[in-house]
Specification:
heterodimer, A: alpha/beta, Rossmann fold, six-stranded antiparallel beta sheet, 6 helices, 28% strand, globular, disordered N terminus, disordered C terminus, B: alpha+beta, 2 domains, 10 strands, 52% helix
């Protein structure tokens, strides 16, 4: 059973809270500390960027809070519930992921044998909607993200940007508390990359869903509410720089 | 949403090719079963069609289908005299191979006991039963002898007056039905010089036998046809078929005839069992073992195919796990595909088999019982062969989706 956050905790609107997460691979001479004492609190509707060079531990952090790769120590709260206490899961992680988390990846990661609409529909069905309800919800989401007209296309027939929109729609299918995105714009040009980032902001601000985006793309940092940086497994909050004004 | 059908629809070309491959394999499994049925059916066909209550054969032999059986032609008269016997027919049966134009004509010759048996029981597709005691024959359609054809066998010419269907010997040769006199003439056909030598030998043998010494008149007739010299000629027919007034009297009549020292009596069931355990048993075992091997091979191939199909989808499976799909969803995806593949293969095997099996040189009989049995086997091997794929799907980490 997962444990709720204390009732008098002022962080009632906290979407996700990571406390002192550490991840160690191997042991003895082969021990590698991929993440050390990383903490992050993300409020509902907040859009967070996680920056850092390759190998700094960003993906390790993301997979830990995504309940895919358990931390060696530390605690993870999602939707006011303690889910991970160290490596120990306090609930059925797959079921919890299905209900509370959405994922968007570097490549769109759509199921190739399902059409765009069906890729979203399957996520709705997995969350208990009937086939008809799921189809309606999928079309609503695709409409919301501006690609309803491509619902009958297979992923291979969509552009990179369109695929990412479908992936975002799928991530929203379960009305998640948090969307975790791992370099979602890496395969896109700067224009389409920015469109996707703005999409996350729109979703977060309109639907109250928190978004954590791992990114290398410094051109779109202005869309984020909060910036974090990871280096050598250590996570630090970074001040937002003011936008340069062109004269 | 049915993920299995979605995947199949998307990769329809690959699925069709795979299903055809499995279908061909299952068709061979199905065909082996059909060949076995055909062998058994062909072997017992004559016994069933002749519909005799008792088979009277040479003493201590297993009857004309298992080994050579020789009984005197007049044995039928003796049998007919036994109370309770309604009909006693001569049974002459042997296989010959002759040249018919450019082709080799191999046929089983069966003698009908004229005039008691004119072949009215033979299923004809064309023509009529025998209408005279000599020089007519009814040929099975597998012999490809047209109605009205005159065919020379030995020193005589026979006319095809009827074409039968499905009358095959246990060796798979078409049967030609002649009167027993003609069948004997074909069997005992020897060159003129051999006849002269046999007559001389006959006189010589007769001088040594008591009967020849006591009845010199017999030796004077030694130059006559063999069939007219029962006392000194060799027994000539294969068996006598007895039909009883009341089939329930079989045991009593068999005891009476079985008491004769020169014959052994079998019921039709005993004759059928002797045939199956003798000439057909090894073929049956061979085909059965081959069928088991083919089934194992089909299972392995299906397992490999399903495993490969699962590997192709591994990323999608990891992704489904990541977004929270339960194991039952993934299990359903793989199992349903396995079952659809098995069912499609089975349907292809049946449809293609129905077109191809009739063209086989020997009969391939697919019974409903065999079809149900094979369907059950396909069901089991579909599930068993998906085990490897299911295992792979179960162990894949959602992390794979991020790779």
């Amino acid at each position: 059973m997962s444990t709720p956050l204390p009732a008098d905790d002022p962080s009632a609107k906290i979407a996700i809270k990571a406390e002192s997460l550490t991840k160690i691979y191997g042991a003895g001479n082969t021990e590698v500390v991929a993440m050390r004492d990383a903490s992050m609190t993300v409020m509902a509707g907040e859009v967070v960027a996680l920056l850092g060079p390759s190998g700094s531990g960003k993906s390790t952090f993301l997979t830990a809070v995504g309940l895919i790769n358990p931390p060696t120590s530390g605690k993870i709260y999602i939707a006011n519930q303690l889910i991970m206490d160290g490596p120990k899961a306090l609930t059925n992680l797959r079921s919890f992921r299905r209900k509370h988390l959405g994922f968007v990846f570097q490549k769109s990661n759509l199921i190739p044998f399902l059409k765009a609409g069906e890729n979203v529909q399957i996520a709705c069905e997995l969350n208990g909607l009937s086939s008809r309800q799921a189809r309606i919800r999928a079309l609503e989401l695709l409409d919301y993200l501006g690609i309803k007209d491509r619902s009958q296309s297979y992923p291979s027939m969509l552009s990179g940007g369109q695929q990412q929109r479908v992936a975002v729609a799928r991530a929203l299918a379960n009305r998640p508390s948090v969307i975790l995105a791992d370099e979602p714009t890496a395969a896109l040009d700067s224009f389409r990359g920015r469109q996707v980032m703005e999409l996350f902001t729109k979703v977060a601000h309109e639907q109250g869903t928190s978004v954590i985006v791992v990114t290398h793309d410094h051109r779109s940092l202005d869309v984020f509410d909060t910036l974090y940086e990871m280096e050598d497994g250590k996570l630090t909050q970074k001040a937002k720089e003011p936008l340069a004004v062109a004269h | 949403m049915n993920l299995a059908i979605k995947d199949i629809s998307y990769n329809i070309g690959r699925f069709v090719l795979t299903a055809v491959g499995i279908g061909m394999l299952l068709m061979v499994v199905m065909g082996m079963g059909g060949i076995y049925r055909g062998v058994v059916e062909d072997a017992t066909l004559l016994i069933d069609r002749l519909d005799a209550d008792l088979w009277v054969v040479q003493r201590s032999t297993r009857g004309p289908f298992a080994e050579i059986s020789r009984v005197p032609a007049k044995l039928s008269d003796r049998a007919l005299a036994v109370p309770g016997v309604r009909v006693a027919r001569e049974f002459v049966y042997h296989t010959i191979q002759r040249q018919d134009g450019d082709r080799v004509l191999r046929m089983a010759v069966l003698g009908l006991s004229w005039p008691t048996d004119k072949g009215d029981w033979i299923p004809l597709v064309e023509g009529r039963p025998l209408g005279q005691s000599r020089f007519e024959l009814i040929a099975d359609q597998t012999l490809k002898l047209p109605l009205g054809k005159q065919i020379e066998i030995g020193n005589e010419v026979y006319q095809v007056v009827g074409i039968s269907r499905g009358m095959i010997s246990s060796a798979g040769d078409g049967i030609a039905f002649l009167s027993s006199a003609d069948a004997l003439a074909v069997q005992l056909d020897v060159p003129g010089e051999a006849v002269r030598l046999e007559r001389a030998a006959r006189e010589s043998r007769g001088r040594l036998f008591d009967v020849g010494i006591q009845q010199p008149a017999l030796l004077e007739n030694a130059t006559r046809q063999s069939g007219q010299l029962p006392a000194i000629a060799r027994p000539s027919i294969s068996a006598v078929l007895v039909t009883l007034e009341h089939p329930s009297d079989a045991k009593a009549v068999a005891e009476v005839i079985g008491g004769w020292t020169d014959v052994t009596v079998y019921t039709a069931d005993e004759q059928r069992n002797l045939l199956l355990k003798g000439s057909v048993e090894k073929v049956r075992s061979q085909i059965g073992l081959f069928r088991i091997l083919l089934t194992i091979i089909a299972t392995i191939i299906m397992a490999l195919i399903l495993y490969t199909l699962t590997l192709d989808k591994l990323h999608s499976i990891a992704l489904l796990k990541l977004i929270g799909a339960s194991n039952s969803v993934l299990l359903g995806l793989i199992l349903q595909q396995a079952l659809i593949l098995g069912a499609s293969g089975f349907a292809i095997a049946y449809v293609v088999g129905q077109q191809i099996f009739p063209k086989f040189p020997r009969r391939v009989i697919i019974t409903s019982e065999d079809l149900i049995q094979l369907a059950a086997i396909v069901f089991v091997i579909s599930i068993a062969s998906s085990g490897l794929g299911v295992w792979k799907a179960m162990v894949v980490s959602p992390n794979e989706a991020l790779a």
